[in-house]
Amino acid sequence: ERLGNDLCLTHYLSQNGDTYIDTEMVFAIEGNDQIKFKEVAVPNALQGGELRGHDRAFAKLFAQNIVAQGFAEAAQQQFLPEAQETPTPEPPVQKIAAITEPSLKEVADELREADLEGVAVELGLERDPHDKHKWRGGDHIISISDRLFMDWLTDKGGGGAIDLVMHIRECDFRTAVEWLSGRDFSRPAVTAPKQIRTEEPRTLVMPVANEQRWSAVQTYLVETRKLPLALVERLHERGLIYADDFQNVVFPRHGLKNAQWQRGEVAGASLRGTWGEQNPFRGMALGTARDRGWFWLGTGRGQIAQVMLTESPIDTMSLAIINKQNCLQNGATIYLSVDGSGSVPTEALKAVVGQGGKVAISFDADKPGELMAWRVAQQLPQAERLLPIAGKDWNEQLAGVEQESPMRKQITTLWKWHSTAFSLGHSEKYLNRVREVAVASLRGEPLSDKAQSAMRKDMRMRTQQSFVNCECGR
Question: What is the 3-state secondary structure (H, E, C) of the chain?
Fold first, then answer.
């Protein structure tokens, strides 16, 4: 679009039936029929409006995308003399124009009425044999009631088939509509094996390193997040963190080589925005496999003595600094980020425990962190819970936040009960019940008299057991 002497190339997005400007690149039209790059604009997610600046790296990527999508060829065809015109396939620009906002909205309106249980089957979820209204799969336990659903593990819900697909597949509105519109959900909802899903995994596209952006990213990590410069520089030199064209800090995620604590292939990357004040962006590189790679650091030598799980790469770095003085003299310590998904290398962690090591779930001291911690505890009931002394996460503690999390006492009590029940040798069914009570408590439900009685009984038994062991030791 031309506005006065400016030429604007604008990218629109559609979400929940609304179309809005996502990004824009502006050129100044000069008198000699030339155009000169002027600025780019991106939304200001925190304060509304937009952020504008002379970001040539972003403009270059924007321009490359336009060329790659065929707009240049389509424009050239429009200026060919009629005598030279030959029949050609429909140009890419026509294909793109065909998926307009109204048609997408019409399709979305129809898909919202799709049967949620049928959609759940196609998403690979399986009906709970003990509760016909619950569906399970991966990191999800979802209750479905007519047009509504609720995921009890992530404490998120929504309404309609599109919301359900967006939640399970962690995709945007348009991708969910396209995924739904290519399937038939009219058949009865029956439990289907997961192997019927034939879609190919997404190709991993790692962000390209941009050394010109590194200085700004380094400043963010050191001055804003209070991480030591020596640590930041050392990780950068090893290629474990770097900057991309958008001034994001990139944390490559490595798999475990031969199921050992050695870096295997890169399985993706976690991204953290640093451009502008209080940039909220967090994301993953396209095609990242959350369950096959993690951002992790190791300290010490020898056999792995402990693994400390955190929610984010910055928390991983922060905890490594905080725990430096407390590291075990014998053995190594691994600090590993799960990036909010709760996906952990279960078998490798079990191997650490089997060799006498420890696993500490060091997630944030807030409701989302606790919900995720109890999910991990279901896979590793012997794991301990470790909380920041101050602040809700390890970076806040490193930065000097003094206020203690208001949930600390509640969290500590529930985990003490779980640890006690495990040490007493209670069944997995009993431990599952403790976890269910803990999650319900996090959502505001008071502990029942029965639960409180069971907790007190376990605590007494543990105290008596410790006393007997003490007497025998004498």
Answer: CEECCEEEEEEEEEECCEEEEEEEEEEEECCCCCEEEEEEEEECCCCCCEEEECCHHHHHHHHHHHHHCCHHHHHHHHCCCHHHCCCCCCCHHHHHHHCCHHHHHHHHHHHCCCCHHHHHHHCCCEEECCEEEEEEECCEEEEEECCEEEECCCCEEEECHHHHHHHHHCCCHHHHHHHHHCCCCCCCCCCCCHHHCCCCCCCCCCCCCCHHHHHHHHHHHHHHCCCCHHHHHHHHHCCCCEECCCCEEEEEEEEEHHHCCCEEEEEEEEEEECCCCCCCCEEECCCCCCCCCEEEEEEEECCEEEEEEECCHHHHHHHHHHCHHHCCCCEEEEEEECCCCCCCCHHHHHHHHHCCCEEEECCCCCHHHHHHHHHHHHHCCCCEECCCCCECCHHHHHHCCCCECCCHHHHHHHHHHHHHHHHCCCCHHHHHHHHHHHHHHHCCCCCCHHHHHHHHHHHHHHHHHHHHHHHHHC
What is the model's pLDDT at position 30?
Answer: 80
Measured distance CA(382)–CA(292) in Å, rounded: 23
Nearest CA among 273, 315, 284, 281 for reference residue 297: 315
Counting Cβ atoms within 10 Å, is residue 210 exposed (0-12), middle (13-18) or buried (19+)? middle
Q: What is the predicted pLDDT for the residue at 175?
A: 78
CA distance 273 to 188: 44
Assessment of whether the complete model's pTM goes beyond 0.85? no
10-residue stretch averages of pLDDT, the chain, 474 residues long:
83 67 83 80 64 74 78 72 50 37 58 76 76 77 82 78 86 78 41 42 85 95 95 96 93 88 92 79 81 91 92 95 74 88 84 93 89 88 93 93 87 92 91 89 87 91 69 52
Q: CA 191 to CA 217: how far, in whole Å?
A: 48
Cβ atoms 51, 276 nearer than 8 A: yes
